[in-house]
Amino acid sequence: MILTNLKLENFKKYVSHSISFEEGLTGIIGKNGSGKSTIFEAILFALYGELKNKGDKEIVRNANASIKDVVSVDLDFEFENTPYKISREFRGKTLSANAKLYKNEELLITGAKETTAYIVKLTKMNKDAFSHTLFASQKELTSLSTKKPEDRKKMIRKLLGLEKIDYIEKELIEKSRDLKRDISAYIEILLSSDDIKDKKEHIVKHKEQLDIYTNTSIEKAKHIDSIKLQELDIRKELEVYIQTKEKKQNLFSNLELLKNTINAHISNQTKLAREIELLNEKQKELKGLENVKGEYTKLHDSIKEQEQLKEYHIRKERLLEEQKNLREHYKKSKDTINTLEQESSLHGELIKKEKELLGIQEEIKQELIKLNQKEKELVQEIAGEEKLIADINKKIQNIKNLGRDSNCPTCTRPLLDEYDNVISSLEAIVKTAQEQKISKTKEELEKIGILKTAQDQIQKQNATEYFEVSKSLNLCESKKRDLFIEKEHFVKVEAQGMKNKEELAKLEIYTYDNTIHQNLIEKQKELKTKYEYVLSLETMLKRVDSLKEEYENTNKNIEKLSNEYNEKELSYKEINYDEVKHKEKQKMFDEVQASKEQKINVLNELKVQIATIQGQIKTIQETLDNNDIQAKKVQTKKDDLQDYEKIKISLGLFKTKLNSKVAPRISDIASNMYAQITKGKYQHIEVSNDFDFYIYDEGKKFPIERFSGGEIDLANLVLRIAISKTLSELSGASSIEFLAFDEVFGSQDEARRMEIIEAFHTIKEQYRQIFLISHEMEIKEMFERVVEV
Question: What mean pLDDT, rounded, does the chain reach?
């Protein structure tokens, strides 16, 4: 595998960044915190969908990106001359993962987990193996020689993945210990052979007793069945007696009900006869009061007519009062209109006057603008002349300070005899400017001031007059509005007066007399009691027909119910029921039932004894069955323990064989590289099975700590590369053709840096790509190509 291109979007420090990777030795150079290590973290994420630390998912999105922005990493690489591309991304608030894998620019896999599984299968390495094999840091390099032997052994075993074997071996020991403990515990609760024999004898005895009880219960059950048949025959005879009794009782109840219903109808018949007789008498009384109703109705109509006349009278009085008020309003409104018409007659003249004053005011304003502009120009002219005088006075003073031997400030030639002439000439210019130009300009300024004062005065007078005219015009317009409103009011008053006059003419034909009205009301009050009594009689007499009909229906019902009663009484007498025989048969049934219950109780006691014995047999058998199950479990655990012991032995042999291959292979690779880098000075690096490091110097073996810092750094470097190559060989990932080292220069001087760079140049034939990450900007000249971040 070699890397070709990397593109980052909103990934940690990078908002949008692309990198192209070339073959050979490449330096990734940048200041601390610039995101150098992030590049290889992004490569790891692209391949395996995991960050360096799982908690980093919360901070993987760029700080300036929003929740809607996608975090994405695109990696192009070649594997065995075939181009691949991986696109991974996080989306949304929860950073949901997704991935796509392309081969030869065609979509091959979709899905985060599916893509990771394909990469593991392709490279034959998981994330940890990949990172341990291809990435190394300065801390990791120095730890090879500086750590204590036990710590160094753990670190290298972890790099090589051997700690997993140690973990499995530890798990096997724990499992074996647990199995032994479980076997001991199970053996303690298993039954002895004597216990098993004793329990089996108990089962045989219980089964013999169970057979006796079972046979007895069968005989008892047969006897109970015969009693049940006898009980069934008696029950059938009893049911006939019960049904006959119930039928007779039902008929008797119906007869009583019919008897009570007939009596109720007879009582109602008598009551209806009395009511009909009373109503006939009321009918005669009503005939004597027939004229009361007509007289009362006539009075009611007359009172209603008087009430209508009263309403007309009240309306007429109100209209007369309203007309009186309208006449006053009419006169007052007419006077107001005349007054307002006179007061608003000057409206046109005031508008004309206001326009004239506005025109004068605009003329004054324009004149003042011209005077102000002229005044400003004159002030600027005076300021210019004063500045010129100041400059000339300054030159005169400078010449006086320099003396006769000074140069002319205008032509720069020596003054000498011209000294006095120059000063006189300059002073004459100042005097001319003061007397003529400035004085004349000031006179013009004074004239302009006088003109401005006069215009201001005219403007104030005009403004005062304009204010008075505007005030009069506003008042006049107000009067005109009042005049319009008053005219509208006058029209309404006049219209209302005419309307009222027409209505009064219509009401003149009606006359109302209160005395007549009150007399009619008194007569109605006197007649009201009799009238209400007549109405009650009429209401009462309306029931006559319905009462007579109800009386006829009651007679028919009495006759019908009497016939029904006679028929049911005949049926009741025809029913043959013997109560004495019924009681004798019931007594016989109770005796048979009691005998049955007694024998059933005896049978139930037998069943309880049978169930008890069966329970005892079941309990003993379950104990024996459970003992067999536990014995089988013990045997299974013994078999498992034996298997674990075999695996432990095999794993120990595998570790011994693996160590015998790993350490010599690391030694072989490291020795060849170290000899090449040191140009044959040191021929061999030995790695013991405990991962202690030795360097051979002139045929003698010495611990790595014995050598200089530069030699140790180079030894650490080749050892780490050898470990990476060994890891690749162990995993079968021989097609991985790049290495990356993070800050391997540390704080070394220039000479050692050159040695490390030379070492990498020496091994670059074995790797198509080697990447060195560093924050040292001055070393970038040492690389074939540089990527700055």
Answer: 82
